[in-house]
Amino acid sequence: MPVLQNILESKIKDFGDNGKICVSLFQLNEESPNSFSVNADSVVPAASIIKLCILASVMQRIENNDASFSDSISIEEGDMFGDFDAQHHPLRANSYSIGDLCRLMIDLSDNLASNMLIRFIGMEQINRDISSVLGLKNTVLQRKFLDFKTQSLGLENYTTANDAIQMLMYFINREKQGSKVAAEMLKILNAQCDKNYLSQYMPDGFSFAHKTGHISGSMHNVGIITTPSKKKFVVAVMMTNLKSDVEGLRFLNSFGESIFTCINR
Fold first, then answer.
1. Is 173 in contact with 167 (CB distance < 8 Å)?
2. Do the beta carbons of residue 224 and residue 232 sit within 8 Å?
């Protein structure tokens, strides 16, 4: 990975003081895996990356037979804030299955679906799972999505690039252990609709099971890359303190293009 590392380091240097960049990247299925990291333990606003933790908590409930993908959850007061996501992917019905809510939360990053699952599991339980199940030390869920009142009180959701990698590895390792629920969660990640970040210029034959995240000043993309030859890489790129979200998106596009080009050789 030396060539790729030199390219990525050069791109980060060129970005200069336009924002802070945190990266963790490594290859799976290797005795001495190639790896690259920069600021990988720096704590940043999690944006929608925290939805991977909610997904893991849902998985725990299903594997423990406390819930199933087919169970129905109704929309309740407290799931919505203000006009709430009306311009994006509004939910039209009054209730949805847990499986559909997982797909909406991940593939469309629907905030109402996410808040319904937070309420169903409980924020305290999700944070217990973050600590005891996922083993994350720098990730916390402190507010629902679009709850700007709580955000104004200084409560934010946080994570790191290394923690995001660990979230993904949880699903990968559980699938290896034979979990059908983990396999389904990875299928959901692979159906991600937002391909405008790292995978904007992804070559044919690749797959990218991933999650994006964006709030003003922070843009993230984390996921599992599978090459045409079935090599696998896990990557987390998290950007914060951005002077321009537009420039942040351009950086992610270029950074991702370099990653895909180099590992395709």
1. no
2. yes
